[in-house]
Structures are given as C-alpha cells and as structure tokens.
Amino acid sequence: MAVRLDGQVVLVTGAGRGLGRAYALDLAKHGAKVVVNDFGGSVSGEGHDDTPAQQVVNEIKAAGGEAIADGGDVGSYEDCYKMIKLAVDTWGRLDAVVANAGILRDVTIHNMSEQDWDAVIRVHLKQCYNLAHHAWPIFRQQSYGRFVMATSTSGLIGNFGQANYGAAKAGMYGLMNVLKLEGEKYNINVNLIAPAAQTRMTANLMGRDPNDPERAVVMAPEHVAPAVTYLCSPQCEESGICIAASGGRYSRIAIVANKGVTYDPHEFKDADWFAANWSKITDLSDAYVPWSFRETREEHYAAKKAAQG
Ligand SMILES: NC(=O)c1ccc[n+]([C@@H]2O[C@H](COP(=O)([O-])OP(=O)(O)OC[C@H]3O[C@@H](n4cnc5c(N)ncnc54)[C@H](O)[C@@H]3O)[C@@H](O)[C@H]2O)c1
Q: Which CATH code fits 9-253?
C-alpha cells in the first residue's frame, strides 16, 4: 500500500521552518499541493516575516511540486478562514490540515504572566479550533478529511517550566477525542503527532550544542515527516491516535482507563475505604484504550469492520 496524496490539497501551518517545513516538503513529494502557512515570527511569537513561507514554496516548486504561501496568524479566527479559503480558491479543495505552528514562552507558573499564558494557548490550542471550525464544512461536504495536530510530550507527560505550552498541547488530546467522534461519519480522521526534533525551538534547550552535526542528523525533522504524511493520507483509516516520532523511534501515546473497583451504590463509602482500596483503584494491569464512554477502541473498530461486512 503506497502512501500517495496525488491531486490532494493540504494546509500546513508554521511550515516556513523546522518540522512544518519538513512536513510540507514530504507531503509535496507524495503528490500533495501544499498551502505553506507561516507568520514568520520569533520563537516567542514576536515579529512578522513572509520570507520563510515563500522560501518553502520556492523549494517545493523547484522540486516540481505545487505550493502557495500564506503569511497569516493561526491564532486569528479570520486569518485561519483566509488560509483555508486560499486552498479552495487556488485548487478547488482541501483534503488535510496539519496544525503545526507554535511558539514558546517558557517560565515557571508563579512567574508566568497572563500575557505568556494567553499567547501560548492562543497560538497552539485556539489555532486548532480555528482551523477545525473552518475546515469542517468542507470536509463534511466532501465526506473526507484528515486533521493532524502537533502535540507534545511536554503536555502529555510533563516538562518543567512549560505550564502554558503543556496545557495547550494536552488540550489537543481532548480536542482530538471529541473531533474523532464528530468526524467519523464523514470519514474525517483526527490524529496527533508528538514530535521531537532539532529545530530553532529546541536547539538551545537543556544545554545542547545547536551546531552539533551528529544531532542535526539523528534528530532531523525529516525523521518525523513520514508519520505526518501517512496521517494526512487516504491510506490512514484510523482516528484518535497519538504518534510520538523522533529520529530512530516511532511509538504511540494513549490515555488508558482501568476497570477500577466496583461497589454497591446503595452503600456509601468513606475516605478510609477509599484509602484502603487505593492500590486496586489505581492498578493499570487491566487498562484499555477507550473509544467512547460505551466502547473500548478495539470493540469500536471490530464493530465497524463487522458492519462494513
Ligand atoms: N521541535 C521539537 O522537538 C518539538 C517537540 C514537540 C512539539 N513540537 C511542536 O512542533 C511544532 C513545530 O515546531 P518547530 O520545532 O518546528 O518550531 P519552529 O520554531 O522551528 O517552527 C515553528 C514555526 O511556526 C511559525 N509560527 C509561530 N507562530 C505562528 C502563528 N501565530 N501563525 C503562523 N505561524 C506561526 C513560526 O514562524 C515558525 O516558522 C510546534 O507546534 C511545536 O510546539 C516541536
């Protein structure tokens, strides 16, 4: 099963640099026409420059692909409408969206200003609402869509000094859980990518040498791009999956639930009973991945397969 996006149109935000650039180039290599969005600001989100997006468009065109640049701000409801309209006005369709643009304002919670909180939530989490809200009518109408959001282990697992970023990134998991249900009957798949790569965002973190040539190879964004291309493709038939990707490793991160401890609800238990049962209540040895309140993921996909005959 070759992964191909011939004739399809994909919007990649924050595609002027780093991971987004690698996604845009790989999607174009697999046949997609790409809207290359990038506001062109600093890592913390200041300033504006149309050059990075245009440079990636030039690279795609030089390789024989089709692309168009957009300099909009993903935190803006109106700009997201315009970038989706640009795809439809230019090529008559939109098949996939990669919500990748991002900024950092790292600071511990007691020092975090309201501006630092709001700016990060806006660019990461509100971006996803903006793009999903504007793409959905097109996806529904064509009974097809792929929506990929760039999350992070900083939120799914936790990372010191990134309360705003971690909350926004983990919020994408919640958004995915709801949109996978809302999109299913329209063949709209919603998935997450949790990347790790050497980009300007991570080059100076944790005392790393930004010019380390070995790291530039083993942590290149190009290691993450194949996963995103697959998640954007018609070949990916699953929804509600979070893929972690970095040089040398692809894996999956999921929220699981256990069966827990049951008791007769006509009785009322006290905190001492709860404390005595803590280890059984929190034991994950029977954990499963839920699809909804009613089904496990496995039950859901088995029922779907059976219904399709
Ligand atoms: N690099 C990593 O290891 C890593 C790890 C986890 C998650 N991520 C996520 O992956 C995504 C890409 O990160 P990167 O490492 O390539 O960073 P990067 O700084 O190299 O690229 C991000 C791009 O987003 C653009 N951008 C920022 N705000 C924007 C806005 N409001 N509108 C449009 N474009 C905007 C920037 O101009 C920049 O070109 C981000 O969402 C980031 O949080 C990266």
A: 3.40.50.720
